[in-house]
Amino acid sequence: MYKYKLINEHASSDKYGKCEICNKYVDNIYYQIEYKKYKLGYFINNELWGHKDCLIKLRKKVNHVKEFSLSL
Ligand SMILES: [Zn+2]
């Protein structure tokens, strides 16, 4: 089980470096934190800077799992 937090850094690659996914320049860079659920709660599993779209695409596909558990 994963949870994500997306933060608009209001800055470009000049400050944070290129997108860590596609390695291209970013005008408006985002910071994404991936949390993984353990017995004691959610802990940071991964952190990335890059384009908003690149970060969202990289998220693990957990939607179908969530829907399945809701229907139980
Ligand atoms: Zn990118």
Report on the architecture of this protein.
The chain has 72 residues and is of the alpha+beta class. The chain has one domain (2-70). The chain is 26% helix and 36% strand. It has helices at residues 13-16, 52-58, 63-70, and strands at residues 2-8, 30-38, 41-50. β2 (30-38) and β3 form a beta hairpin. The protein binds zinc ion.
List strands and helices in order, with pairings.
Elements: E1 2-8, H1 13-16, E2 30-38, E3 41-50, H2 52-58, H3 63-70
Antiparallel strand pairs: 1-2, 2-3
Mean model confidence by pLDDT:
87
Query: Unreliable runs, pLDDT <50, ≥5 residues?
Result: 63-72
Through-space gap between termini = 17 Å
Cα gyration radius (Å):
14 Å
Short structural description:
This protein is an alpha+beta fold. The protein contains three helices and three strands.
Keywords:
single chain; 72 residues; alpha+beta; three-stranded antiparallel beta sheet; 3 helices; disordered C terminus
